[in-house]
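Incident log, support desk, overnight shift.

02:14 A customer reports that sequence design results differ from what the structure should imply. Their input is reproduced verbatim below. On-call engineer (initials T.W.) acknowledged and began investigating.
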């Protein structure tokens, strides 16, 4: 009998603990009433919104924080089946970042870039908003992979947006991120070398 009572009390204690932790976490998510003193490098207050769409599922993160002036740039990338929008609103006075970052323009802009799926990188994707570049990302960690699509200029300039181990190249022309083809001069050189070795 004492064992049953002990187990019941333990269960009640644990569930109360979980309930309390969840409630505190929920309140922190809803109310941003903490203040933070920015350091010398982080000279601006900011509110930011990062939205990721992966295979039609939306994930959104909202932050209010101190940032460097160089981080006050909104950007987006579109690469089927993935899209990331990062919107940031910066200001210079104390406690000025109490309004949410605005939504980005996600209207098609007419530009197209190559994109990849499990069959290869020959499909195309339509660019949106200020995505004025095509990109190719080669990532070798944790395994080798290639991603292609549309990107804003700031995302291209700050390749860290794609990941620490990614090698990113960007270009501005329509469908300019196609697979690079071997040049005719290189083929001519190879053929010449083959004939040379066959004849000697």
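02:41 Re-run completed on a clean worker. Output:
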């Amino acid at each position: 009998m004492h064992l049953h009572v002990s187990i019941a009390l333990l269960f009640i204690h644990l569930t109360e603990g979980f309930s309390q932790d969840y409630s505190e976490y929920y309140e922190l998510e809803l109310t941003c009433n903490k203040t933070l003193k920015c350091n010398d490098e982080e000279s601006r207050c900011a509110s930011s919104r990062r939205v990721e769409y992966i295979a039609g599922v939306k994930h959104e993160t909202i932050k209010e924080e101190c940032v460097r002036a160089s981080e006050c740039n909104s950007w987006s990338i579109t690469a089927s089946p993935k899209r990331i929008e990062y919107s940031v609103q910066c200001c210079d006075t104390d406690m000025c970042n109490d309004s949410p970052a605005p939504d980005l323009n996600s209207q098609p802009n007419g530009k197209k870039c190559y994109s990849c799926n499990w069959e290869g990188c020959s499909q195309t994707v339509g660019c949106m908003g200020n995505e004025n570049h095509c990109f190719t990302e080669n990532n070798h960690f944790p395994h080798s992979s290639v991603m292609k699509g549309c990107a804003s200029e700031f995302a291209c300039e700050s390749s860290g947006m794609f990941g620490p181990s990614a090698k990113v190249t960007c270009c501005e022309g329509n469908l300019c991120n196609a697979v690079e083809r071997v040049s005719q001069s290189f083929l001519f050189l190879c053929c010449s070398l083959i004939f040379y070795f066959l004849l000697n």
